[in-house]
Amino acid sequence: MSAQHDLCNEVEPTDVEGLKQALVNRLIYSIGKDPLQTTNRDWFLALAQVVRDHMTLRWMETMRGYYLGNVKRVYYLSMEFLIGRTLRNSLLNMGFYEQFNQAIEEMGMELDSLRYMEEEAGLGNGGLGRLAACFLDSLATMHLPGFGYGIRYEYGMFSQAIENGYQIERPDTWLRYGNPWEFARTEVLYRVQFRGHVSAQYDGQGRLRHQWLDTEDVMAMAFDTPIPGHGGQTVNNLRLWSAKATRDFDLRYFNEGNYIKAVDDKNRSENLSKVLYPDDTTEMGRELRLRQEYFFVSASLQDILKGFDPDGGHSVESLPNEVAIQLNDTHPSIAIPELMRILLDQHGLEWEKAWDITRRTFSYTNHTLQPEALETWPVKLMEVLLPRVLQIIYDINQHFLRDVSSRFPGDADLIRRVSLIDEEGGRRVRMAYLAIVGSHKVNGVAKLHSDLMKTTIFRDFAKLYPDRFINITNGVTPRRWLTHSNSALSNLITRAIGTEWITDLSQLKHLTPLADDSSFLREFIAVKQTNKGLLAGLVKKRHGIELDPSAMFDTQIKRIHEYKRQLLNVLHIITRYNRLRANPNLDYPARCIILGGKAAPGYRIAKLIIKLINDVADTINHDPAVSSKLQVWFAPNYNVSRAMELIPAIDLSEQISTAGTEASGTGNMKMTLNGALTIGTLDGANIEIREEVGKENIFIFGKTAAEIHELFQRGYSPWDYYYGNAELRQALDMIGNGFFSHEEPLRFRPLFDELLHNGDRYALLADYESYITAQGKVDELYRNPEAWARKAVLNVARSGYFSSDRTINEYASRIWNVVPVLPNG
Ligand code: 26Q
């Protein structure tokens, strides 16, 4: 890098004429289209390229700043980055929106029609992947040197179609028309080893040195995406790896007689980065998944360490002072033995030194409490796929267990419980334990979750390492989730309190007095009404379905899971339906109940829940006796773009998981920020939402985590609740006996059976009555629009804590020890 090369823009983005010219040039010379014969997609691609050009210089300046400042950096390793669309986000964060909008309009087009052409980057399943994307936005906005590392899946999260009420999965071909935001770094290639065997030999100094030989290798090629922060001064980088066959395959084309086989092998090694696993729990033991994990971890570590010199020079000893690595769940936790392998086998460090460096570099975030969702890998599989890595895991375990026995002599059961290897039922590596042992900090994602982590799944470890466990409550980026997605509310807020809230969300507190200002409340109500109208318009246009914008929009949008209890929502819907049928004059305020979310393709019960929602919707929506009071809609293919359309229009946010099961939730935060009221359990971050907004401004129901625990300890019988509540029994019987599926009466029997014959693991029946009561309070408040709006305004005013800027600041100071690098010095 030479200082003579001053960075300068081709055209200033303030020059609208210049932008128009740049767009036409791009269309002709990069897209190869005659301006007289174009589609919206051509213009979108041209536009995206011009926007990217303008980010690129700031990006280079940012990278130069980090390099020259020689600052500590953080690397966020995640199997998932659920980014969504980029165009509008980049224009707004960079501050280019107005000029580009004007240029497009003067060219006789509409920015909106172009931006809908963008395919979203859906490289994640749900909360965990979206959190990673919010964190990237916050890192850049707060000028922190933070880099994402992940996989450039060719197929992201599947696209969900609903056919005859059933979920159908379609491949997500997001790269079909090219990805205008990324830079392919064809020269940034690393070799990743698999299989082979280990040879151990004594070196000149009498030390045992290991070599991993005769491996089958795959190359990792880098693709970089600029990540602009708000204000556009800092532009960070997201580096995603794509699998490429090694040159060895090319040679074999020529040397081997079997050309087709050689090409086939090449293809198979490139399959590694083909597809995201669409399961947000665990579908364990799948070799390809483990290969994906090791692939991106190995490439990322090689990249992170490239400036360090095995032969002295810039020594790895200072690694923890220069680098922090955050593991997004256990998915990248193989990085711990992999770094050890590099330090031992390549840099020749002693075990103790290497281990000290490793532990001071890594930290691990846990996102689930469900013991069966904790990742484990069969030893047999690792032995074949990653033999040297497995040896190191064994060595880590040996050192660790030796330490434990010296602190707790004679406690054999403790050793069995905490061992990194689960010896029962086929030996498996416990990745969460590996991550805890190899990290200096382990965090949960909401207060309750972090507390339960210490008393349940990681109890033994919390005793061994009390200072290692901390809580950092999740957050969401206010840029994407308010400024960009909800311009009506953003403008209202800005008119009231200025713009500072965009980068300091705690400023929303200045809205508090306006909750008692009736003219502000009227404006707030009008904003929500506008957003509901916009959503209804989109739904009409896309699906031909008419949502009633005068009804309360009551919404549960998230992955379909038994623990999230979409079925409890359905039980309420059926109860409401039955009450209205029995008494059509009930003065219920009209409700439009919307559910949306994807089921893992192999999760039978979750898929059946989707079918049930659609069948119930079908029955209710065709019953004229209730049609003015109740409507149900399953929103297909819920993803980031759909979330940005739905959330601004929501009145009631459903957060009804069994207490103690939802680690945090982040949709709950987005809806609070957008002026919805929450009906929810004391679970995950709902608890902190209640603390912030005040218990009189949220509808809390159901048993606490402690009560749920006690219920099952005592011996929970769902039948008691079934016989104890006639309305509940009626609703369950209707599901079980085919009221919603006349053509196949037993269709939903498996759901009935889960709840009654299989013990109702998530205690839906135990929480039913309290849920129905809370829904009654919702109706009551909704009848008074001003009283409802007052509470909704207070929710917005008190949601500042849930900004991912606050979250990231906590990580930066409590875990990473990194500080902002202010642009231009
Ligand atoms: C693991 C192994 C093999 C295949 C798939 C997986 C896998 C993939 C994704 C396991 C878990 C996930 C995703 C989990 C997730 O999204 N968890 C959510 O994380 C959010 C952010 O912290 C929380 O708000 C949610 O409560 C939590 O459910």
Key terms:
825 residues, alpha/beta, nine-stranded mixed β-sheet, six-stranded parallel β-sheet, 33 helices, 16% strand, binds ligand 26Q
| Residue share in helix | 40-55%
Bound chemical compounds? ligand 26Q
Shape: globular
Structural class: alpha/beta
Largest sheet: 9 strands, mixed
Structural Rg:
28 Å
Number of strands: 24
**What's the rounded overall pLDDT mean?**
96
Count of DSSP H/I helices:
33
The stretches of 5 or more residues where confidence is low (pLDDT under 50) are none
Taken as a percent bin, the fraction of beta residues is 15-25%
CA distance, first residue to last residue: 18 Å
Major sheet strand order: 7-10-11-4-1-12-13-17-18
Structure explained in plain terms:
This protein is of the alpha/beta class. It is 47% helix and 16% strand. The strands form six sheets. It has a nine-stranded mixed beta sheet. It has a six-stranded parallel beta sheet with strand order 21-20-19-22-23-24, sandwiched between helices. Strands 14-16-15 form a three-stranded antiparallel beta sheet. The mean pLDDT is 96. Bound molecules: ligand 26Q. Ligand 26Q is lined by residues 125-128, 131, 277, 279-283, 289, 367-368, 375, 445, 474, 662-666, 684. The site of ligand 26Q has 23 residues, from helix 6.
What's the short version?
47% of the residues lie in helices and 16% in strands. It has 825 residues and is of the alpha/beta class. The strands form six sheets. It has a nine-stranded mixed β-sheet with strand order 7-10-11-4-1-12-13-17-18.
